[in-house]
Structures are given as C-alpha cells and as structure tokens.
Design a protein that fits this description.
heterodimer, A: about 425 residues, alpha/beta, FAD/NAD(P)-binding domain, D-Amino Acid Oxidase, Chain A, domain 2, 3 domains, seven-stranded mixed sheet, six-stranded mixed sheet, 15 helices, about 25% strand, globular, B: about 90 residues, alpha+beta, Alpha-Beta Plaits, about 20% helix, about 15% strand
C-alpha cells in the first residue's frame, strides 16, 4: 500500500494498516511529516478517541481547551460571549490546541514504530494507471507499485485530480486561512486568558474581522504561543468590492484594541496560510476508484458550522476507514472500485458522513452576508445604547431595542433564522 | 504591492528551502487577464503584483504553497504544481 502525504489522514491510514501488519509506504514531500501542514489550532478528540486508543496519552498536544469564546465585532466595538463548563475543564478533555509540525512529526514516529516506512522529501508526481486500475505512483522519476494508493495529499489533491476523481476546486467551495504563531510566555498567557496551569482557551471572531464577508478570525492558546488568524471565503475575497488584500485582514485584526492587548510583548515566529474545504457535503470529491482511496482534506473533509470549525478529526477518521477498506480489499485480493467502495459504507456508518449529512445546509446558511455585516453592527449598536447613560434622561429599554428592529428587519431576521434552524 | 503590511518581515520568519524550479508559472498570454488579477488580492504572501504595463507578475520566493491562487484564478491562468520534495516552506510550528 502507498499513502501519498504524511499529514493526519495519511498518518492515520498508515498507522492502521501497519497495525494489521500490512506493508505500507508513506511518501511525504516535506522535510518531515507536518512540514507542509497548517492548522488554525484545535483538534477534537472525542469522535476519534477509540479509533486510536494508544495514541492520546503521550501525544504532544498543546493545551486542553476549557474556555470557549465568541467575539462579535463591529467597526469600533465588540460583544464577547465566554463559555466555561465543568465538562470542558475535566478529563477526558474534548479538545486541545495543537501545532502540526510538532504533532505530525511525533505521530509519524508512532507510525514508524508500528512498522510503516515513511520517506520524506519525496513528491509524488503522478499515478500509474494500467487497464483503468491505479497500480502505483511516480515519484522523483521512479515508479512505485502498490495494490492500493491512498491519496492524502491535501486540499488541492492533485493526485485525486490525476486519477480522475475530481476537478480543480472552485472558489465558492474554499476559504483561505492565514495564521501567525506568536510566542508568549506561558505565565502571561495564563494571566491574560484567566487560565489555571496548562488550561487553554479558544476564541472565534466574526463580523468586522472579515470586513463583513464570509469568514472569521480565531485565537487559540498553545503552551508558549498563540495561534492568531483569519479565515475568509476565496470567492468573497476575490470579488470583494472593498478589495482588501487577504494579508491585510490579519494585520487589521492584530491592530484592534481587543486583540492588541492579548498579543502585547509577544514575538511572531511564523506566518502561514492554508486552503480549507468549506463546501460541505455537496463538494466532497469522489472517495474511491479502482486501486485508489481519497482521505482527509483531499476528499473535502472539513466542516464549518459557525460555532465549531473542524477538519483534523475527520482527516484522521477518514484515514482510519480508508485503511479498513484497504484491509478488506487485501482479504479478498480484489482492489476494484467495487470492493474499495466499502470505504464509503464505513464512512456513512461513522460520525464523518453523519455529520456531513446533518450539516449539509451549513454552507448555504453561513454564506448569508448579513451574518458578517449587518447583524454584528446591529447587536453592537443595541449594546452601545443599552449601556449608555446620556447627559439627561435615559430612554426606556424596550423602545431602545425596538427602534433598531422595524418590521422589515424582523422579517429578514426570521427568514435568516429559518435557514440557521436547519442546522 | 508595496510592503505596507510588513509581509517581507513576516515571510522572513519562516524556514524556506530554495529550489531552482519555479513551481507556479503564469501561462503565456494570460498576464493581463482579469481572472489572473484576483491573485493580487487573494495571495496570503502578497507575491502577485500588477506592473506598469498592467501585467501581473509573480515572485515565487516566499510561496506558502497554499493553493489559493490556483483556486481563485483557475488552471487556465496558472501552471501550478508543488515544489520538488524537500524544498519550499518547512513549517516549524504549523
């Protein structure tokens, strides 16, 4: 078996295959696993805990997330919501902040310990197709044969494209994430975010952070650093009337008073960007073909439902199920698309496809520009008036709110709400 | 783009391993195509610029290999592949 790409999907597939004593080779184009990977910052463990029971105890995760925040930003004001709960703050923790270069590199070592071979600094250029069956890859001028190729080569998946399983991605189905890692003393992180010891916090930003278009910002606390970034729809970015270059959005976020005080005295140590699948169920690629399976970002397994943004656990789970399908094919000694279609059946029975079906309407509901422009301004205007104590008499509370909400506005809200209620 | 965003300094934080090979190239004749101009806005590294002749130019040094330009502009505009193994961006944090 050949796995293309040593990210989370590829490593999860290789780990599972090697556990069953199959000969597996991972080809990774970076200097090490994780060298080409970038995350916003958080891995949810619960859905995949049992798929890799031995993995979590020693995993180099950053901080368990015990505090969830949302900041709704208007141009010059913001409204914050913070959630803390005993279930978040006790073991087993549901999610951790993570840095991929560290985590993937460690995971790759675990994969090797299971008996898989990982070859780094090797780019796969093409697939070998014989009588319609994929039977290996071309890498650095060499032909490498395999019964099954598992394409885990990331969001663009040129390998799935060459195998005829997908077309180049369309702007409406993708967002770009841009992130800075900012080093900051652990004690300062704990003080600024109100954390005890190794506890961590997450915060999502919406509204003015993307100049009112689809997307948002994020901040995760790592052990000794912060991951601060923005995510914005590629379609919105390239057709935006205000024509703001993508990197300017992150710079503007850093300049905002609410953020500037959190990152003060921090040292930026890395600047990265990554494309994220945002199209949901409708834009998943074909998942299998004769001699080939597609997993992780390559297949489109990442999902934004506003309040949670997830990808890595889908990557690991899809890698696991791809391996299970490959194992079945090995048992039958039949690597046809028909046998490998077991992969899709396994995914359908798992949380992966169940989530993608449950949230199939999320991309449409979240593409509504009022969520990013009108409503953040509106809620902040209302808060400003509610808190205001003017020179003279204060208006009654209900009329204060009511003046912002005329019938037309309310009707639009009800209609927007109905879309959100499908989630 | 003038470097008002300090992108040069930001990209300077990263570990890049150089390669002789330009892994992204503007297809001949497409330099003035409006579809290509999208790259100027979307590239997180600010590597696309419009010159005085209204032609889009690409500096490949500092490329984060994210693929945003390939998705925004399309494969009619760009020859796009990943750089050779063991070259390009090597994230230390990611």
């Amino acid at each position: 078996m050949i796995v293309v790409g040593g990210g989370l999907a590829g490593l999860a597939a290789a780990y599972t295959l090697a556990q069953h004593d199959l000969e597996v080779l991972v080809l990774e184009r970076g200097d090490y696993a994780g060298a080409k990977n970038l995350t916003g910052g958080r891995l949810y463990i619960n859905p995949i805990r049992k798929l890799f029971p031995e993995l979590w105890r020693k995993a180099p995760l950053e901080r368990p997330i015990v505090r969830e925040g949302v900041m709704i930003m208007a141009a010059e004001s913001s409204l914050s919501l913070n959630y803390t709960g005993a279930e978040l703050a006790s073991e087993p923790y549901q999610s951790y902040s993570v840095l991929r270069a560290k985590f993937d590199r460690w995971f790759a070592k675990e994969v090797e310990r299971k008996g898989a071979a990982i070859v780094t600094k090797t780019k796969v250029d093409d697939v070998i197709i014989q009588d319609g069956q994929i039977c290996g890859v071309r890498a650095d001028g060499e032909e490498l044969r395999a019964d099954v190729v598992i394409a885990c080569d990331g969001v663009l998946s040129l390998i799935a494209e060459k195998a005829g399983l997908r077309k180049p991605g369309k702007p409406k189905d993708y967002a770009v994430g841009i992130k800075e890692v900012i080093e900051l003393d652990a004690a300062l992180i704990e003080e600024r975010f109100g954390l005890e010891g190794n506890e961590g916090a997450a915060c999502l930003f919406m509204g003015a952070v993307t100049k009112g278009v689809f997307g948002g910002g994020f901040l995760y606390t790592n052990q000794n650093s912060l991951s601060l970034g923005i995510v914005v729809g590629i379609n919105e970015l390239m057709s935006s009337e205000s024509a703001v270059p993508a990197p300017a959005l992150l710079e503007d976020l850093k300049q905002r008073a609410e953020i500037a005080r959190l990152i003060k005295d921090g040292t930026p140590v890395e600047y990265g960007a990554h494309v994220i699948p945002e199209g949901g169920l409708a834009s998943l690629t074909k998942l299998y073909g004769p001699g080939i399976l597609v997993a992780g970002d390559a297949a489109g397994f990442s999902m934004n439902i506003g309040i949670t943004v997830r990808g890595m656990e889908y990557a690991m789970a899809s890698g696991y199920y791809a391996a299970q399908a490959a194992l079945k094919a090995r048992e039958k000694n039949d690597y046809s698309a028909q046998v490998l279609s077991a992969y899709e059946v396994l995914l359908n029975e798992s949380f992966v496809m169940k989530d993608f079906y449950s949230f199939k309407d999320a991309p449409l509901a979240l593409s509504n520009p009022r969520i990013y422009a009108r409503y953040p301004e509106l809620i902040n205007d209302i808060m400003a008036d509610l808190y205001a104590v003017p020179d003279g008499a204060k208006e009654k509370l209900y009329p204060t709110i009511k003046k912002y909400l005329n019938w037309r506005e309310m009707l639009t809200m009800v209609s927007d709400m109905r879309k959100v209620m499908k989630l | 783009m003038t470097d008002i965003l300090g992108l040069k300094a930001k990209l300077g934080l990263n570990v890049f391993k150089p390669s002789e090979h330009r892994h992204i190239a503007i297809k001949p004749g497409m330099e003035k195509d409006p579809r290509l101009k999208r790259a100027v806005l979307v590239c997180p590294a600010g590597l696309y610029t419009v010159n005085q002749d209204d032609r889009v130019e690409l500096t490949i040094d500092g490329c984060l290999e994210c693929g945003t330009c390939r998705i925004a502009c399309g494969t009619d505009m760009l020859e796009w592949e990943y750089p050779p193994g063991g070259t390009g961006i090597q994230y230390r944090f990611g």
